[in-house]
Amino acid sequence: MHADRIESPRVLLLETIDPRAHELLDAGAEVVLSETPNEVDCLHAASAGPVHAIMTRGKGRVTPALLDACNGLVCAARCGVGLDNVDVPAATARGIRVLNLPGCNAQTMAEHTIALMLAVTRGVVNAADSVTRGHWADRAAYDRDEANGKTIGIVGLGNIGARVAGVCDALRMQVVYADPISRDVHYPRLDLPDLLATADIVTLHCALTDATRGMIDAGAIARLKPGAILVNTARGAIVDQDAVARALHAGHLAGYAADVLETEPPTPDDPLLHASNVVITPHVGSLTRSTYREICVESVRNVLRVLDGDDASPGTLFNAGDLT
């Protein structure tokens, strides 16, 4: 989708990006960095002059008000995959191109998922904490299991889920999956209720949509096998966290691991913070040095390409089918 080249382009950053990517952006455009990702500060930054592109990571929200405040806007880019902080319909209605990087974090997120799964299955965090506290004798009460031979249920067999499946296959696990799309794989495809009832470990890799919001609720958790483990590296709002805490307390759920929460950071009274056999990381799954830099650099290059009048990189124009 070609457009005219923007002379003296101006880019609004809603939050910081990798220094190398910022240098690249500085070389190709005038950069305005919002003081914070808060909408008030973003609107204030946008009011200082024309804005031809908006770039955000995960906190800064691209809202209709911000779109309207940016005079001359051509594109809005997310340094990453998920677009739940970008109002895509509003951007499309205004003829604004929405850019993201599908698959950019697939490998590192698959690694983090496996790390969380094994941490809970093997009780790694609790065991290491026992050593730190000088309780070596706790090993006599060790009662955790291994992944070998277990059934892993993967909800969403896209870029990340497929990589998780490959690793679990290598760990001699039985892989089943639930997905609206039938994938060209040898793993059995089940509907979600059957997957929940079958799997020893369930890991979530689906997008947050109206259909998936709250999908893993008390009813879904009740369908899980007693002693199952749940892993969420997708989006916090897919899971009813209070229901998870109750299931952990009742012993129906043997463990929970997550890199995402519905409220980030969590409140001090979040019951999951005080539940046993829970491992939660602070949304760092794709923040490895290598992947974070690559995501930011590729996003900047894509934005500069569009501002120069060229097409976005193949597969990165999210609303291509809806723009005229």
Written account of the structure:
34% of the residues lie in helices and 15% in strands. The protein is an alpha/beta fold and 324 residues long. It has 2 domains: 10-104 and 289-322, Rossmann fold (3-Layer(aba) Sandwich), CATH 3.40.50.720; 106-280, NAD(P)-binding Rossmann-like Domain (Rossmann fold). A 6-stranded parallel beta sheet has the order 7-6-8-9-10-11, sandwiched between helices. Strand 3 (53-56), helix 3 (64-69) and strand 4 (75-78) form a beta-alpha-beta unit. The mean pLDDT is 96.
The number of domains is: 2
Straight-line N-to-C gap = 9 Å
> Helix and strand string, N-terminal first?
EHEHEHEHEHHEHEHEHEHEEH
Could you tell me the CATH topology label of the largest domain: Rossmann fold
Query: What CATH architecture of the largest domain do you see?
Result: 3-Layer(aba) Sandwich
Beta strand count: 11
Spatial arrangement of strands, main beta sheet: 7-6-8-9-10-11
Residue fraction in strands: 5-15%
State the CATH class of the largest domain: Alpha Beta
What is the CA-atom radius of gyration, in angstroms? 22 Å
Number of contiguous helices: 11
Helix content: 25-40%
Low-confidence stretches: none
CATH superfamily grouping of the largest domain: NAD(P)-binding Rossmann-like Domain
